[in-house]
Amino acid sequence: MRQRFLASAGIVAVLVIGAISVSGQTPARSSSSAAASRWTPPRTPDGKPDMQGIWDFRTVTPMERPAEFANKPVLTPAEAAAYEKRIVASRNADTNRDKETSRGIINGTPATADVALAYNEFWWDRGTKVAGNMRTSLVIDPPDGKIPPLTPAAEKRLEEMDKRRERPAEGPEDRSVGERCMMGFNAGPPWAPGGYNMNVQVVQAPGYVVLMNEMVHSARVVPLDGRPFGNVRQWSGVSRGRWEGDTLVIETKNFSTETSLRGSSPNLHLIERLTLTDPETLVYEFTVSDPTTWTKPWTAQIPMRKSQEQIFEYACHEGNYGMSGLLRGARTVEKDQATSTRP
User: How big, in percent rounded to 5, are the helix, strand and coil portions of the chain?
Assistant: First the structure.
């Protein structure tokens, strides 16, 4: 049984019925689609693959391939088991806290002055298994398992963002949308493994698909009727979907200027593909294109597992007291700095 932050009621998805037909740009068909062709998925009343349910995308597989596996895209079962054991042990907050506090040091600083390990292992819900495809990275393209280099413009943009986050926050806008409780840090789009709440609920109706994240309980309603994207930017972008055989393809753009995937710009263009490959696996694949951030597009794949648990509410901070505390702390730091520099 996994540990969660807050338990509450489930969700109700309110759906509008519409027609089905859409067009858009997509990458080439993935290997997940070929695998799915060998198995016939269940169908919804309108004849589409029934992906409904709760899916878990926890995994110890890193986004990018570690140096130790530089020339090894796929692990053997024995290698996977050894890697899982090592990573789970290295992430255990209780064990690491005991080791570091026994020396009076946490993350290189005196234990009394640092709260980096304020959460013990009870609160974490990280993955314990290598992804089902046994790959050494979630990135499957480029073939080396690495995200392509940043453009010079992106490097400059990220340096400026780092400077804002390193100084005492002048206002909420200096902090990430995750810290401001506006978006979950792993809620996407696209979804990517994080520390906890790595679950998504899929709800389908004729003409629509709803993707409900456990993290910050945001629901993305994806119409399948070919409507235009428009030009209004939104926190989760604007999504439009269509079916390519038994694969659900979702195209998203018009992201907010404050929404960022690993430093992406508002020009981010995202293609997601969801394919049922067996009763317990929904392969989630996404392709990222943003020429103002990366030198070329890249693709990652996560075989999500069917979960028998329910989605719980994640309320972030009630009233976001964390942000008010952060800003009060920043004003205190400024006051102390001013005092210390007086002659």
Answer: 25, 25, 50
Length of the chain: 343
Answer yes or no: do 215 and 263 share one domain.
Answer: yes
Paired tokens of 37: 């062709």
Which of these, 4, 3, 14, 10, lies nearest to 205 by C-alpha position?
A: 14
Give the count of domains, the chain. Answer: 2
Residue 308: CB partners within 8 Å, gap ≥ 6? 54
Q: Which of 190, 287, 211, 185 is nearest to 55 (CA)?
A: 211
**What is the CA 253 to chain-centroid distance, rounded?**
16
- 12 within a domain of the structure (yes/no): no
**In a 3-state reduction of DSSP, which class is residue 134?**
coil
Q: Are residues 95 and 213 in the same domain?
A: no
Q: Are residues 180 and 255 in the same domain?
A: yes
CA dihedral of 120, 79, 133, 279, whole degrees rounded to 10 = -70
If asked whether residues 108 and 253 sit together in one domain, one would say no
pTM over 0.70: yes
Residue 123 structural domain: 76-129
Tell me the per-residue pLDDT of 72-123, one tens digit each, with 9 for 90 and over.
999 999 999 999 999 999 888 887 665 544 444 434 444 443 455 567 888 8
Distance CA 223, CA 212 (A): 14
Question: Do 116 and 170 fall into the same domain?
Answer: no
- Residue 302 tokens read as 């996560």
Query: The tokens of 94 are what?
Result: 């209780």
Mapped onto helix, strand or coil, the DSSP state of residue 23 is coil
Q: Tell me the residue type at 198.
A: M
Q: Residue 212 — φ and ψ, nearest 5°?
A: -105, 115
Which of these three, 129, 144, 163, is where a domain ends?
129
Whether 65 and 124 map to the same domain: the answer is: no
CB-CB neighbours of 322 under 10 Å: 15
CA separation for the pair 93, 123 (Å, rounded): 9
What are the C-alpha distances in Å from 100 to residues 45, 95, 209, 210, 325?
57, 9, 47, 44, 27
- Looking at the fold, whether 269 and 184 belong to one and the same domain comes out as yes
pLDDT in tens, 204-220: 999 999 999 998 888 99
